[in-house]
Design brief:
globular; mainly beta; 11 strands; 7-stranded mixed beta sheet
Length: about 110
């Protein structure tokens, strides 16, 4: 397993935007990365993925509102999740996932509320 460090998240009003970040060691650059979320009392669900070649995929519930991207530096890889037009139902703990290493970030809370 590898250490994934998340940042971002917080409280935002409906319709607002947030950006989540997830930084991984550089040797994970050949792994697909993903974001998942888990709302209170519910199972963790997949949100979005980005493959090695940069192709992306999204859950229907976030398609058109969320954007996943990836930056590669010399020693790190950072994956972002830009979340726009946020809704109350997006409220959850968000986790990044390094697919090939079966590793998870520590989670970051996103709360959408007026």
């Amino acid at each position: 397993q590898v250490q994934l460090v998340q940042s971002g998240g917080g409280l935002v009003q409906p319709g607002g935007s947030l950006r989540l970040s997830c930084t991984a060691p550089g040797f994970t650059r050949h792994s697909a990365m993903a974001w998942y979320r888990q709302a209170a009392g519910k199972q963790r669900e997949w949100v979005s993925s980005i493959s090695i070649d940069g192709s992306t995929d999204y859950a229907d519930s976030v398609k058109g509102r969320f954007t996943i991207s990836k930056d590669k530096a010399k020693d790190t890889v950072t994956v972002y999740l830009q979340m726009n037009s946020l809704k109350a139902e997006d409220t959850a703990m968000y986790f990044c996932n390094c697919v090939d290493f079966s590793s998870w970030g520590q989670g970051t809370q996103v709360t959408v509320s007026s």
